[in-house]
Amino acid sequence: MENQLLKEIAQDIGETKGMVSAMRDDFEKIDRTLNRHDKRLRRIENLFIPAVAVLGLIGQKIMKLIGL
To answer: Which structural domain, as residue segments, surrounds residue 26?
Structure first.
């Protein structure tokens, strides 16, 4: 009886270790994905700010041309 209980506890511990390991792998995948998207967003942001500045300059030139 005591051996059976110990076997069940050992089996539960093994299953728990497996679940924790699987969750760790999932979190690592999520972390890598978030890092990748963060880098992409920074690249987009770095392109967006100068583009808005250029559009502002173009808008100023157009307003000067039409006399506003």
So the answer is: 1-68
